[in-house]
Amino acid sequence: MIEREQIVKGLVVVSFLILLLMYRGSENAKVVIVFAFYFLAALMYRIDTRYPVLAAIGSLVLAAILIAEHNETLANKVVIYAYYFLVVGVLLILVEYVREGKEEEFVPQRELKNKVLAIISGKGGMGKTTLTSSLAVALAKLKKMVIVMNLDLTMPNLDIAMGVKVRGLIEREQMVKGLVVVSFLILLLMYRGSENARVVIVFAFYFLAALIYRIDTRYPVLAAIGSLVLAAILLAQHNEALANKVAIYAYYFLVVGVLLILIEYVREGKEEEFVPQRELKNKVLAITSGKGGVGKTTLASNLAVALAKLEKKVIVMDLDLAMPNLDIAMGVEVKGMGEALKDGKDVVTVHNHGCDILATLPIKDGYKNSGMLERIKNIIDEVRQKYEVVVLDFPPGIEAFDVIDKNTYVLIVANPEKLSIADAYNVNKALEDRAKVLGVVINKSNGADVEAIEEMLSLPVLAVLPEENRVREALEAEIPLVARDEECEFIDEMAELVKFLVKYWEKDESRGDGEP
Ligand SMILES: Nc1ncnc2c1ncn2[C@@H]1O[C@H](COP(=O)(O)OP(=O)(O)O)[C@@H](O)[C@H]1O
Ligand SMILES: [Mg+2]
Q1: How far is the CA of 291 from the centre of ligand 2 (A)?
Q2: Does 296 contact ligand 1 (Cβ within 6 A)?
Q3: How do residues 16-29 score in pLDDT, each as one tens digit?
Q4: Residues 177, 205: Cα–Cα separation, whole Å
Q5: CB of 472 closer than 6 A to ligand 1?
Q6: What is the pLDDT of residues 339-391, one digit of tens each?
Q7: d(CA 403, CA 376)
Q8: What is the DSSP letter of 394?
Q9: How far is the CA of 468 from the centre of ligand 2 (A)?
Q10: Of 408, 398, 459, nearest to 430 (Cα)?
Q11: Secondary structure (DSSP) of 9-45
Q12: Residues within 5 A (CB) of ion ligand 2
């Protein structure tokens, strides 16, 4: 879903294009408009100083294509823009360089002796590894003799941060994708056949790109609109011949886009609303992760509410004893758990948004208290008898993994970053043979490479939850987002995830290998 801010930004861009289109003044003034716009865009989108250089390179490539098409006049204009971009880019880089150089250099005065520096935090995911690796390198740059050690034995990833062991697949894949795009451009540039064949090449490429980048059905329509705007600009510049060509592309894009949208529409219409078929029996679902802050509590609370919306009898339990916050996520007061843990009293739950909640206050030393794991296990055993689904909001890491048994279903939450994926890998390895790990939920995603992640983890990605401000706002308001009657990608993805889980459990039970 596009945010309001993006619409405003889009309007600014479109207004600029219209301005440029209507403008009838000198070529120089036009260049000034373009650069005024460029700086505006740099401001709105926080554009990096390297981007003008990239824009210059892009313009040069475009100019080369135009020359190959014997459109020298337009090519010349584009080259002028390339030149200006290059000047701006180099200037910006120089300014940054001079500014950096001005700060006087710090020179250490004496040799230090055996300093030991520990980097710690309450939760994971706060950036300990990032800080540690950066700090070590910065110290080395001051000619200090430094060694950096990984003390996170269960979820180590300093190796990745320091680049001492290659595990990643992502870069290579992206390079291959880039090569495909460049090869296509060269092909188009060298091609001397008929115009129709060229259209075929462009669309073959389009579908290839759609495949490798998982392009959305809305994109061809956007491409058509873009092409039409370009055609209009060309017409305004009295370049009818090229405008006609561009308009043909617009037409083809439009046809493809509308067809795809129709297909999707028909397919969606076909999907009937999901209604659970049978009552589930005592499912226990653990929400885990290597680090904190990835979104376990967010997922656990929203999942519980989404299950309740399907009329499931569900309880969600805070197992993060040291830093609990399920009470905030569910908007309830804490009751009961402390007493139940201490003197084996009956568990007292609270109720909100259609589900029961067992929240807790922070318990000093958490799972390190002797017998704590056993007591927690007993509570889960007691509770699971009364519910269709028990959702467990775990602490980060492995400290509570002994609560998990062979009948526990597990979701691993990760963010689409290398370190977080490495953590997910380690969690899965720790649980592989002792629980039913269903898969991974990628949270705070702005476009994750799902296939690469699945390949790295050998686990299915069951949902990709976008990073959305409303998730944060909802948490601030102490309401799980799915409890709100809104439409957004996060809520849609949660609905799909819950549907998957319920279907999966129903199948499990009809096969008879569900709970004892
Ligand atoms: N999809 C999301 N979009 C934006 N913010 C998110 C999202 N998921 C979680 N957050 C924010 O990230 C922070 C950590 O989430 P939380 O669920 O408490 O993580 P964990 O339980 O794994 O420690 C919270 O402030 C939450 O608002
Ligand atoms: Mg949490």
Answers
A1: 10
A2: yes
A3: 777 777 777 666 66
A4: 12
A5: yes
A6: 667 666 677 788 999 999 999 888 888 899 888 899 999 999 999 999 999 99
A7: 7
A8: P
A9: 18
A10: 398
A11: HHHHHHHHHHHHHH--S-HHHHHHHHHHHHHHHHHHT
A12: 296-297
DSSP conformational letter for 274: P
| CA–centroid distance for 64 within its chain | 36
Residue 302: Cβ within 10 Å count: 28
Give the C-alpha separation, 466 to 289, whole Å: 17
Pick the CATH number of 283-511 from 4.10.520.10, 3.40.50.300, 3.40.50.740, 3.50.30.60: 3.40.50.300
Residue 434 corresponds to which amino acid?
R
Domains in the chain: boundaries: 117-167, 283-511
Atom of ligand 1 minimally distant from the CA of 292: 23
Q: Which two tokens stand for residue 157?
A: 């990833």
In whole angstroms, give the CA distance from residue 59 to residue 46. 21
Instruction: Indicate the Cα dihedral angle 371, 377, 383, 385, nearest 10°.
Output: -130
Which one has a higher pLDDT value, 64 or 276? 276
β-strand 355-358 against 350-352: which pairing, if any? antiparallel
- Give the number of residues written for the chain: 516
Which amino acid type is present at position 304? A
397 lines ligand 1 (CB under 6 A): no
For the stretch 75-117, pLDDT in tens is 888 777 777 777 777 776 666 666 555 555 677 777 888 888 9
φ/ψ of residue 103, rounded to 5: -60, 120
289 CA closest ligand 1 atom index: 22
Where in 67-226 does DSSP place strands (E)?
A: none
Amino acid letter for position 329 = A
Looking up tokens 């802050």 gives: 293
Nearest to 285, CA basis, from 131, 167, 403, 129: 403
Q: Which two tokens stand for residue 216?
A: 């959305």
Q: Are 465 and 299 in contact (CB under 8 A)?
A: yes
Percent of the chain exceeding pLDDT 70 equals 74
Residue 309 Cα to ligand 2 middle (Å): 22
Per the structure block, which two tokens stand in for 468? 């959305």
Token readout for 62 is: 């475009």
Contact between 318 and 337 under an 8 Å Cβ cutoff? The reply is yes
Which run of H or E residues covers position 437?
Answer: strand 436-445
